[in-house]
Amino acid sequence: MTNPSSDSCDGTEYPYSNISIKTPPASPVHPVVVGSTYSTRRNSNVCECRSALEEEAVSAVREFSFAVQTVCISEILPRTSDLLFLNLTTLEGSTYCIELTSKGWRIASNRQDCMNGDFRQLSLHTRYFESLNQLLDTISPAYRDKFDSSLAAMSIDLGSQFIKVGLVKPGTPMEIVLNKESRRKTPNLLSIRNGERLFGDAALATSVRYPSSVFGSLVDLVAKHIDHPSVILFQKRFAHLKIEKHTNKSSIIFPIGLKTLRHLTCIFRDEAYPVETLLAMILSHIRDFTASFAEHPVKDVVITVPVFFSQAERLAVEKAAHIAKLNVLQLINDGTAAGLNYGVFRRKEITETPQRLLIYDMGASKTVATIVEYRLVKEKYSKEPRVRILKVYAFIKMNQNIIVLSILFLKLSDFSRQVFYQMSVLGVGFDRTLGGLEITLRLKDFLIRKFRANYKCEKDITENERAMAKMLKEAERLKQVLSANVDHYAQIESVHEDKDMRIHVSRNELNMLIEDLVPRMKLPIDQALSMAEIRLEDVNQVVLMGAGTRVLKVQEVVQNHIGSKELGRFLNTDESIAMGALFQSISFTSYTDDFSFELDYGDLNHFSEIQRKEMDSLISQIFTVSVSGLDKAIKEKVKTDETEFKGVKVAFQLDGSGIIRVQSGEAVIQKKSQGVVECLYIFMYTSSAITNTISGFFSTKKEEGEPTDTDEKKDEEPIETLSDNGDKPNLDIREEKNSEEVGEKYSESDQEQKNESVTEDKTAEKYTTAHIMDKNDMDSAKKILDHYEKREQLAAERAAAENSLEAFAFETSLLLDEDSFISHSTDDERKELFSEVSRIRTWLEDETGTDTKASEFTKNLMKIKNLVKPVQKRIDESKTFLPALSNLEKMLNSSRIMASMGGDNGKTLFSKNDTKEFNRKLNKLENWILIKKEEQMKTKPYHDPTVLTSDVETKVRALDRELKSFMKKMKQVTLDVPKMKNEKNEVEENEITENKKDNENNVNNNDIGSGKTDGSKIEL
Q1: Helix 132-139 crosses helix 52-64 at what angle (to 10 degrees)?
Q2: Three-state secondary structure of 805-819
Q3: 491 and 626 in one domain?
Q4: 65: domain range?
Q5: What's the confidence (pLDDT) of residue 657?
Q6: Using one digit for the tens of pLDDT, what is the confidence trace for 882-920?
Q7: CB contact set of 677 (below 8 Å; sequence gap of 6+)
Q8: At which of 733, 754, 773 does a domain end?
Q9: Are 878 and 824 in contact (CB under 8 A)?
Q10: Does one domain contain both 236 and 312?
C-alpha cells in the first residue's frame, strides 16, 4: 500500500484505474468513510505523475464517495491525459459509466449498455456538467434530497429598500443570487391586489399605478405597537398606506381588500394581514428564486438585521422566516457582516498590531457606525491540530438595564502557525431614522413646493396618490443624478391634472435641504467612539457603505468630521453585507471547514434620549418571567432551624442571533449547619421566548405531551421533603462557597431523572413590547402563505396551458400553407385540421376567461396535436429514412469486406462455417433492404410509410452486434519464423544472382560500343 496523497515521486507509478471506493457507515445519515486501494505496476522505475484529469477524478472520488454506493476509475475503458472513464453506482442502485474530459463530466451510457459497446448519444448523454456534484444532482434524486440541499446555505441582506441574497453550495463558488429578472438586488416590495401578489421589480412597476397596494419598509415595523415612534413616522412618510391596530393585540396590521374571484378555490373577502405575515411572503419569494437559481431547494439561511434591533424585533424576523419555511441559522448584525467580509479578504494584512476600521453605513432608513478591530492572537490551547468546528459562545452583560450587541470574534484557524485571526466589534452608534429615504422625502417635498409655485391646479397634488408616487420615484432618481452632476431637471409627464412638470434643481439646493441633518450624520461616529473608548486618532481606516453615502453632502460631512483621514470606498456598497453573512452561513454547513467563529456581546451605555424612546422595549425590560409554585416549595422545603431560603436563580442564554432565551431556573435553599446549597431544578431550555408557558418550574412530567394519572394526581401534592441525612436522589444538591456563586452544570439525562418526582407548576415569560406571534398566529400565517402559493401555482399552470395552446394553434395555421405539409397530407386531413384550428382560435378570443380551467386548454391542445401528428410523422420519415438506409448499406459493404479478409493460400482469419453463416445473414439483410426500398418507392408521400426509420436503425444495431460477434471468432495465426527467414534468404540470393548477370551484360554492351572485342585494341 502506498500513500496516494504523497506528492513526492519515488519511482512508483500509481495506476488510478485501480481505485475502488466503498462506503462503510461513518455517520447516522449515510455511509461516508472511504476505503481506497492503490496498486503499483511491476518492473517500473520511471515516476509517472498524475495528469490534471486524473487529479480531478481522484479528488472528486474522495469528495463524493459518501454520497454514492461505489465509485471507481475504469480499468477496461481507455484512459489518456485528455480522457478517462469512471464507474459509478448511485444510492438508488443505478450504475453509470461517466466520462471525464477537459469539457467536463458526461454520462457516457448506462453501465450495461457501455459494456455491450452501446454508446448511444441520448439527450442526457450529450450534456457536460461542470462538476460531479451537478451530475449526481441530475441523475440521483436520493443524493439531491439527502445531501445536495443540506450542503447549501444562503444569506439575506434584509434592507429596507433592497434585498441582496448570497448563495454557497457544493461545486460552485460563493456568489450573489440573481432574481427572476437577472438582477443582483431585489426591491423589498410586495404588492397585493385582487388576490394576486407581485414581488420585487414587478411590485415596483405597479407602485405608481396602485400605490395603496404596494407595501415596503416592512422591516422597520416588526414587533412594534401602534403608538411606537417608528410606526408614527411610517404613517407620516407613507400616508397612502393604511395601518390598523390588531384586535385585542398591540401589533399593527395592513387592511387588504380582496375582491371575489370565481375561478379560485376560495372566495376572498376583505382581510387584514400582520406585518410579519407580509414579511414572511417576501422571504418566501426569496426562497423560491434562490431555489430556482441554485437548481435545488435551499432552506438554511443567515439573515442580517440592524444592530439596534431589540429581542422582540429579532424574534419577529426569526418567526417570519419560519413561516416562510426557512431554517434560520443565525441573525447577524449588518455591521458585523460587513466587517467579516472585509476581514476574510484582508487576512494577509492582519498582524499582531491591532488594526481598527470604522464602517460608516448609511442605508435607506438607518445610519450605523461600527468600529471593528483585527489582530492576530496566539493559540491558547494544545498545539495539536483540532477539527475546525463552529463554536458560538454568547454572554450577556447588563449595565443599568442596557443590553446590546456586539463583539464578534472571528477565528480563522491556521494550525501551522498556531494563531487566530480575530475580529472584534468595539463599538457601534446609530440613528435608526436617518437614511437615504429621509433625503429622498425632503427632495420630494421640495419638488411639490416648486410644482405648486409654477403650476396652478384645481386640486392640491398631495390629494393624488399616483402623483405622489410619481414624485417619490422622480425624487429618488434626481438624488442619484445630483450625486454626479451639479444640476439637473426633474421631469414627469402628466404628473397631475394632465400637466407635465419640468423643474430645475441644483446640488446646492439639495445640500440646503439636508443642512439640519449634519449633526445627526456625525452622531453615530461619536457614539461608536464613545462605546469603544478610543479616540478618532486610534482608528486606522474609515470606509463608507450604503447607498446613502453616495450623496456628496454626506461624504463631505463625514470627511470634515474625521479630519485628515482618507475615506475608503473599497467595500462593495451593495453586496458586502450579504457576502459577509454568507461567510457566516458557511460555518453552519458540513461542506467546508475553512472558518471558525466565536461570538461575544459587550455593553452599550450611552443611548440618547431619542434612541431610548425608539428602543423603549429594549431598555426598560426585555421580557418578564412569571414564577408560580414557589410558595408551596418554600413551605415544604424550608425549615427554620435547618435550612434557609436564599433566593431564585434564573439563567438566561444569549444565542448567536442576539436573542435572549430562558435556559434554567433554580430555587436556592441552604442548610445552615453544613453550608450546603440545595438547588431545585426549575426548567430546561425553552425554544419559545415570548408568552410561552414553561411547564416544570420546580416540577415536570416525565415527558412533555404525555400526561399520566399519577401526574394529574400530583398536581396539588407538595414537593417531597428531604431526609434527615441530606440524601435527595431526585434533587440537585450543590456545594458553594457562598450563595452568590453558580453551581456546577448537570447533563440533561441527570436533570430528567431528578425532575420525575417533582410536581408540576408553570411559569410564563412575556415581552413588554408589541404582541409577538404565538403558535396559533404562525399557523394562521402559514395557511395564508400556503393558500396563496397554491393559487399561484394553479394560475401558473393555467397560464402555461393557455400559452401552449395559443402558440401551437398559430404554428399549425402556418403549417397548412407549407408545401411539405400539403404534399404529405390529404385534402380531408387539411380540411379537418383547418376547421379545428379556426374553432380553437375563436374559442380563445371570445369564450375563455379567468374561470377557464387548465384542463380545458390541455384538452383542446391534444385535439390539434392528434391531427398534426400523423402528417408530421410522414414529413420526418421522408427526411430521415434515406440517410438511415444509406448508413445501413455502408455497414453492409464493410461487413462483406471484413468477412473476406485473409482468404489467400488457405490462411483465412475465420473458419469456413463462421464465414458461411455470416455471409448468409448478410445476404438475408441485403434482400430485406432491396424489398423495403422497392416498397417505399411505391408508397405515396401522403400515405403512411411501410417501413420506418426506427426499423432501419434496429437493423443497424443488429448488424453491429453480429459484426462484433463475428470479429470475436477471428483465429490466431501462428507464423513459422525459421521458414520465413529461409525463404527470405533464398529470395535475397536470387536477387543478387540476377543483379550480377545484369551487370555483366551491361559491361559487354559497353565494350562493343567503344571498339573493344576479344581483348584486342582496334585503332580507327
Answers
A1: 50
A2: HHHHHHHHHHHCCCH
A3: no
A4: 16-148
A5: 64
A6: 899 999 999 998 888 877 764 544 556 777 888 888 889
A7: 646, 668, 669, 670, 671, 733, 734, 735, 736, 739, 743
A8: 773
A9: yes
A10: yes
Listing DSSP states for 748-788 in one string gives HHHHHHHTTTSPP-EEEEEESSSPPP-HHHHHHHHHHHHHH
The confidence score (pLDDT) of residue 507 equals 93
- pLDDT tens digits for range 130-170: 788 778 878 888 777 666 556 788 999 999 999 999 998 87
Sort 944 into a burial class: Cβ within 10 Å, 0-12 / 13-18 / 19+.
exposed
Same domain, 420 and 497: no
- The verdict on 365 and 446 lying in the same domain is no
Q: What is the mean pLDDT of residues 947-971?
A: 86
Q: What is the pLDDT of residue 861?
A: 92
**Structural domain total, the chain:** 5
Closest CA to 336 of 372, 312, 282: 372
Same structural domain for residues 490 and 539?
no
Residues 38 and 89 in one domain: yes
- The H-or-E segment that residue 459 falls in is none
Q: Pick 1007 or 372 by higher pLDDT.
A: 372
The x, y and z cell numbers of residue 333, run together, are 448584525
1007 inside domain: no
The CA distances from residue 537 to 13, 350, 555, 563, 565, in Å, are 61, 19, 19, 10, 9
Question: Could you read off the pLDDT of 555-607 as tens digits, one per residue?
Answer: 999 999 998 888 888 777 777 777 777 767 666 654 333 333 333 334 445 55
For residue 649, the SS3 value is: strand
- Confidence tier at 666 by pLDDT (50, 70, 90): low
β-strand 623-627 against 762-767: which pairing, if any?
A: antiparallel
Q: Which residues contact 546 (CB under 8 A, 6 or more apart)?
A: 360, 361, 362, 363, 367, 435, 436, 573
CATH assignment of the domain containing 134: 3.30.2280.10
- CA distances 535 to 72, 423, 520, 603, 809, Å, are 62, 19, 19, 18, 75
> 404: which 3 cell numbers?
446590546
Per-residue pLDDT reduced to its tens digit, 760-797? 344 444 444 567 788 888 898 999 999 998 988 888 89
Q: Whose CA is closest to 925, among 885, 881, 964, 898?
A: 885
Which of 268, 115, 270, 285 is closest to 191 using CA atoms?
285
Does a structural domain hold residue 158?
A: yes
Determine contact, residues 635/661, Cβ cutoff 8 Å: no
Decide if 267 is inside a domain: yes
Q: Are residues 628 and 742 in the same domain?
A: yes
The Cα 237–Cα 626 span in angstroms is 39
Beta strands in 124-262 (DSSP E): 153-158, 162-169, 172-176, 186-187, 189-193, 196-199, 214-216, 244-245, 252-256
Q: Is the domain of 450 the same as that of 466?
A: yes
Who has greater pLDDT, 80 or 542? 542
Q: What is the pTM of this model?
A: 0.64
Collapsed DSSP state (helix, strand, coil) of residue 214: strand
Taking the CA of residue 636 as centre, how many other CA atoms within 13 Å lie in the half-sphere pointing to its CB? 18
Q: What tens digit of pLDDT does each residue of 421-459 get?
A: 788 889 999 999 999 999 999 999 999 999 999 998 889
Spatial contact of 728 and 596, defined as CB atoms under 8 Å apart: no
Q: Whats the size of the chain, residue-wise?
A: 1020
Q: Which residues contact 542 (CB under 8 A, 6 or more apart)?
A: 357, 358, 360, 558, 562, 565, 566, 567, 568
Residue 33 resides in a domain: yes
Give the list of residues 6+ apart from residue 900 with CB closer than 8 angstroms, or none: none
Tell the burial category of 380 from Cβ atoms under 10 Å away from its Cβ (0-12, 13-18, 19+).
Answer: exposed
Cα–Cα dist 526/369, whole Å: 9
| pLDDT at site 477 | 94
Of 87, 117, 148, the last residue of a domain is 148
853-857: long-range contacts, CB 8 A cutoff, minimum separation 24: 853/263, 853/798, 854/794, 854/797, 854/798, 854/800, 854/801, 854/802, 855/801, 857/798, 857/801, 857/802, 857/804, 857/805
